[in-house]
Specification:
CATH topology of the largest domain: Rossmann fold
Oligomer: single chain
Mean pLDDT: 97
Number of strands: 31
Distance between the termini: 55 Å
Shape: globular
Strand order of the largest sheet: 12-11-8-6-7-14-15-24
Low-confidence stretches: none
Largest sheet: 8 strands, mixed
Strand content: 15-25%
Number of domains: 2
Bound molecules: 5'-O-(acetylsulfamoyl)adenosine
CATH superfamily of the largest domain: ANL, N-terminal domain
Radius of gyration: 24 Å
C-alpha cells in the first residue's frame, strides 16, 4: 500500500488535494487495491435524494483484497491472533493462508446451505475467529452480513432479521464473557419464533451448553465444514453492491439498518486504518471493540486485513479475570497499537496502577480512543500510565454511518490536544451550522457538526427505507449530511466533539435511543408513560435516567420490585445494555401546552442541578416539576 502519510506537510498536501480534486484524490488511493475491472467514473453524488456512488462500474471482491492478494507475500504471517476469554485456554493464531482457507470453507458451507449473492445473513456470535471468518465468508460469495451484537435480546434479533428478511443465521451454542456464560443459540431460538424468512441456522460449538437443534433447520458448523473443500472463487461484486447492513439507534423508533457497499467501504476503512494508526509492517493491532459494532467491522476485520496487518481478536472483557487483562494481553502478544473506548479506560482507572505495573507495556506505540468524548482525566491517565508519555493518542471521531474515522489526529504526525479529535482526515469536509442551518465560518466557534461533501465510506441508504435515510441525515440541513453531534472548533481549527444534540444516548460507548428505551419501558404492565434522559456517569459517560408513570403499584409488589420488573422488561425487549441506571416514579411529566415533554427540565433534574431550570412558563402544570425535583433519585 502506498497511501500512508508520513509528515504533517504531506497531510496538508493530501488534504488540500482531496478538497480541490476529490475524484483524483480517491482514484489514486483506490489504485492500491485489486479491482477485477476498473471503475469508469469515480464519483456521482447529491445529498438531496441522497444518491452517492463511488468507483462506478468497478468490480472487485473485498475478500480478494483482504486475503488472496496477501498470500504470495505474507501467507505465513499472522492475520488474526485470537485471545480467549479464559487466559488459561490456548489461543489461536491464523496466518493469512489459514484464514483464506477457512473463509473459503465457510463460504462453501453457506453455499451448500442455499445462500446466494445478495441474500442477507444474520450473525450472532461470540468474539471468536469463526465470527470474523463468517463475516468474510459472506463477503466472499456476495451475501450481505448483518452482525448483531451478542448483548442484544431475542426481540432485537427478531426485529433485525425481519427488517432485512435474513435467510440464514450463524450463531454458537453459547458465549463466554467474563465470568458469564450467555446461551446464544437459545436466544436465537426465541427470536426465530417470529422470523419466517429464516430457513437455516448454522451453530458453532463454543461453550458446550446443551442446545435444541431443530431437524431441517439447524445444522452444526463443524459437521458442515467436513463436507466442503477450501476451493471457493470469490464472487465478482460491483463497487456499489451491498457489503453489509449494521443496525444503529437513532432518536426515533426502531434502529435503522445502515447500508455500506463493497468498493467505497473497502477503500475508506483501509485508508483510514493505515493513516490514523500509522500501521507499520509486522505490528500487532489490538482493537478492543466487539465485531458487533462498526468499530469492530472496520478496525478488527476489514481495515487491518485489507492492509495485510495482524489484528488481535479478544473474546473477553477488560476486567476478567482481573483489571490487568488488557495489559496482560499487550505484554503477551507484544501489542503495538491499542484502540479502545473511554469507558474502558475510566473503568480501569478506578482499579489503580497495580494491575498496570505488573506488565511490560513497552511494545505500545500508538493509543486510540473511540465511541464517546474522552474526558481530560481519562486522556491523561491513558497517556501517562499506558503510553508512558511516549505514544501518541488518536481520539478518533466517527459513526456507524461513516464506515471509518472522519476526524482524528494522524498518529505521531498531528499535534494532539487532550479531548480534541483535532483535524479532519483527507477527503472529509466538516462544517458547523447554527440552528437555522447557517454555516458558521471561522475559528473559535461551535455548532452542529455536518459534512458538506461525500467520502467513500458514507452510508448509501438505510435498508428497505431510503426515505428514512434522507429524513434522518440529509433533511435537517439541506445539502449537508448531519451527524447529530455538537462540536466546537477552536482557535487552531481543531475540532472537539461535545456529544449528541438529539435524543440519542451514549452509554459506555453504545448508542441507544431514548425513544427506544421508553418504548421498552412502556411495554411493562401498569406503565402509563415514561420519559428517558441521559445524565453524566463517571464510568459509562452517560447513564440512563427513566421517569415512569404507573397506573398504581401492583398489589404485593413494592416499588423496588416494580423497578426490577421494569429492568427485566427492558432487558427482554432490547438487551441488558439499555437498562436504566435510575428509575423515578412520578405522577406526571413536565409538558408544554402542546403536549411535548420538556426534556431539558428532566435532564437538569437527572444531572442533580435543580437550581436553575430555565424558562418553565410554557409548562401546562408547573407543579409536576416540584414533585419530580423532590423525588429525584
Ligand atoms: C464509532 C462509533 C457514534 C457516536 C457519534 C458521537 C460518539 C464516537 C467519538 C464520539 C466524541 C469521539 N460509532 N462518538 N467517537 N464522540 N469523540 N472520538 O462509536 O455509531 O456507535 O456512535 O458516538 O456522538 O455520533 S457509533
Amino acid at each position: 500500500m502506498n497511501y500512508q502519510i508520513q509528515t504533517f506537510d504531506e497531510y496538508q498536501a493530501a488534504y488540500q488535494k482531496s478538497v480541490e480534486d476529490p475524484e483524483a484524490f480517491w482514484a489514486e488511493v483506490a489504485q492500491n487495491f485489486h479491482w477485477r475491472k476498473p471503475w469508469t467514473k469515480t464519483l456521482q453524488w447529491n445529498f438531496d435524494e441522497p444518491n452517492v456512488k463511488w468507483f462506478i462500474g468497478g468490480k472487485l471482491n473485498i475478500t480478494e483484497n483482504c486475503l488472496d492478494r496477501h498470500l504470495a507475500t505474507r501467507g505465513d504471517q499472522p492475520a488474526i491472533i485470537w485471545e480467549p476469554n479464559d487466559p488459561h485456554e490456548a489461543g489461536v493464531t491464523l496466518t493469512y493462508r489459514m484464514l483464506h482457507d477457512q473463509v473459503c470453507r465457510m463460504a462453501n458451507v453457506l453455499k451448500r446451505n442455499g445462500v446466494r449473492k445478495g441474500d442477507r445473513i444474520c450473525i450472532y456470535m461470540p468474539m471468536v475467529p469463526e465470527l470474523a471468518i463468517a463475516v468474510l465468508a459472506c463477503a466472499r460469495i456476495g451475501a450481505v452480513h448483518s452482525v448483531v451484537f451478542g448483548g442484544f435480546s431475542a426481540q432485537s434479533i427478531a426485529d433485525r432479521i425481519n427488517d432485512a428478511q435474513c435467510k440464514l443465521v450463524i450463531t454458537s451454542d453459547g458465549a463466554f464473557r467474563g465470568g458469564k456464560e450467555i446461551p446464544l443459540k437459545s436466544v436465537v431460538d426465541d427470536a426465530l419464533i417470529g422470523c419466517p424468512s429464516v430457513e437455516r441456522v448454522i451453530v458453532m460449538t463454543r461453550t458446550r451448553t446443551p442446545v435444541a437443534m431443530l431437524k431441517g433447520r439447524d445444522v452444526w458448523m463443524e459437521q458442515e465444514l467436513k463436507q466442503v473443500t477450501a476451493d471457493c472463487p470469490a464472487e465478482e461484486m460491483d463497487a456499489e453492491d451491498m457489503l453489509f447492513i449494521l443496525y444503529t439507534s437513532g432518536s426515533t423508533g426502531k434502529p435503522k439498518g445502515v447500508v455500506h457497499t463493497c468498493g467505497g467501504y473497502m477503500v475508506y476503512s483501509a485508508y483510514t486504518f493505515s493513516n490514523v494508526f500509522q500501521y507499520k509492517e509486522n505490528q500487532v493491532h489490538f482493537c478492543t471493540a466487539d465485531i458487533g459494532w462498526i468499530t469492530g467491522h472496520s478496525y478488527i476485520v476489514y481495515g487491518p486485513l485489507a492492509n495485510g496487518a495482524t489484528t488481535l481478536l479478544f473474546e473477553g472483557v477488560p476486567t476478567y479475570p482481573d483489571a490487568g487483562r488488557f495489559w496482560e494481553i499487550v505484554d503477551k502478544h507484544q501489542v503495538n497499537i491499542l484502540y479502545t473506548a473511554p469507558t474502558a479506560i475510566r473503568s480501569l482507572m478506578s482499579f489503580g496502577l497495580e494491575p498496570v505495573q505488573k506488565y511490560d507495556l513497552s511494545s505500545l506505540q500508538v493509543l486510540g480512543s473511540v465511541g464517546e468524548p474522552i474526558n481530560a482525566e481519562a486522556w491523561h491517565w491513558y497517556d501517562d500510565n499506558i503510553g508512558k508519555n511516549n505514544c501518541p493518542i488518536v481520539d478518533t471521531w466517527w459513526q456507524t454511518e461513516n464506515g471509518g474515522i472522519l476526524i482524528s489526529p494522524i498518529a505521531g504526525i498531528t499535534k494532539t490536544k487532550p479531548t480534541y479529535a483535532t483535524l479532519p482526515l483527507p477527503g472529509v469536509q466538516p462544517v458547523l451550522v447554527d440552528e437555522n442551518g447557517k454555516i458558521i465560518e471561522g475559528n473559535g466557534v461551535s455548532g452542529n457538526l455536518c459534512m458538506k461533501f461525500p467520502w467513500p465510506g458514507i452510508l448509501r441508504t438505510t435498508y428497505g427505507d431510503h426515505e428514512r435515510c434522507r429524513q434522518t441525515y440529509f433533511s435537517t440541513y439541506p445539502g449537508l449530511y448531519f451527524t447529530g453531534d455538537g462540536c466546537l472548533r477552536d482557535e487552531d481549527g481543531y475540532y472537539r466533539i461535545t456529544g449528541r444534540v438529539d435524543d440519542v444516548l451514549n452509554v459506555s460507548g453504545h448508542r441507544i435511543g431514548t425513544a427506544e428505551v421508553e418504548n421498552a419501558i412502556n411495554m411493562h404492565t401498569g406503565v402509563v408513560e415514561s420519559a428517558v434522559v441521559g445524565y453524566p456517569h463517571d464510568i459509562k459517560g452517560q447513564g440512563i435516567y427513566a421517569y415512569v408513570i404507573t397506573d398504581q403499584l401492583p398489589d404485593g409488589h413494592d416499588a423496588d420490585l416494580t423497578k426490577r420488573d421494569i429492568l427485566a422488561t427492558v432487558s427482554r425487549v432490547i438487551g441488558p445494555i439499555a437498562k436504566p441506571d435510575k428509575i423515578q416514579f412520578v405522577t406526571g411529566l413536565p409538558k408544554t401546552r402542546s403536549g411535548k415533554i420538556m426534556r431539558r427540565i428532566l435532564r437538569k433534574i437527572a444531572e442533580g442541578d435543580t437550581s436553575n431550570l430555565g424558562d418553565t412558563t410554557t409548562l401546562l402544570d408547573p407543579a409536576v416539576v416540584e414533585e419530580i425535583k423532590a423525588g429525584a433519585v
